[in-house]
Amino acid sequence: MVRSHYEHELEHLHVEIIKMGSLIESAIEDSARAFTSHDLALCERIIRRDQTIDELEKAIESRCLWLIAREQPVASDLRKITTALKMITDMERIGDNAADIAELTMRIAEKNVFSDSGHIPQMAGAAVSMVRDAVSSYVHTDLVLARETQRRDDEVDEYFNLIKRELVHIFSADGDNIDSAIDLLLIAKYLERIADHAVNICEWVEFSVTGTHKSAQIF
Asked: Which one of 123, 176, 191, 218 counts the least CB within 10 Å of its CB?
């Protein structure tokens, strides 16, 4: 009976992680859509939604600590709960980054500059895809997908370098809009960080399956 209750709690934890993953995926997708459409109302919803993501992170953290203290899990169960604790930190920061992009988008939209946003939409699409697959690799315990997703970080880095070169051109040609060009660079930087957080999630998925984190056997 006790074990059944424990398994129920683990399943509840799994459902909460999936819910948080869905929220951050929507936050990034919406921030990319708000950026390309200059949708200020959508930006405001993204910023408000970040609070929901923060609250869910705290709830999952409490559940993980309760499970460790109450059930004293071992082996794969302990790795699974530890992975959840680590993942939610990266997931919460992805939500923060999406809200940051929404705030910068509002500032750029108010100035009504840069009708051509360069490669930022493509970079956002690549980052969103990485986050979606990182969360999916955890949900389905898919080590192959986790490792393949980590390799795609190079694609996002290439977009970031490309966008930097585009912005250097803007700096040279349009000195009146340097502030907005810097905002675009910050958006690209937040997208790069989102991809890095997706890589972190994949590394913890690998730990959950193998006990190895960043090539080091730690459990």
From this structure: 176
In sequence order, the 6+-apart residues with CB closer than 8 A to the CB of 28 are: 94, 97, 98, 124, 127, 128, 131, 194
CB 53 within 8 A of CB 92: yes
Alpha-carbon distance 175 to 193, whole Å?
A: 28
Instruction: Tell me how far CA of residue 34 lies from CA of 98, 109, 164, in angstroms.
Output: 11, 10, 21
User: Strand, coil or helix: what is 128?
Assistant: helix
Structure tokens at 99: 């809200």
What values do phi and psi take at 142, rounded to 5? -105, 95
Which alpha helices (H) appear in 38-142, and where do they start and end? 40-71, 75-111, 120-139
Structure token digits, residue 157: 């880095």
Beta bridge partners of 82: none
* Residues 110-142: tens digit of each pLDDT: 886 665 668 999 999 999 999 999 999 998 999
One-character DSSP codes across 1-18: -HHHHHHHHHHHHHHHHH
Give Cα separations from 149 to 3, 21, 79, 168 (angstroms). Answer: 35, 15, 21, 30
CA angle 102, 193, 153 (to 5 degrees): 125
What single string gives the DSSP state of each residue in 179-213?
Answer: HHHHHHHHHHHHHHHHHHHHHHHHHHHHHHHHSEE
- For residues 84 and 73, the model is more confident at 84
**Of 147, 128, 155, nearest to 204 (Cα)?**
147
- pTM equals 0.92
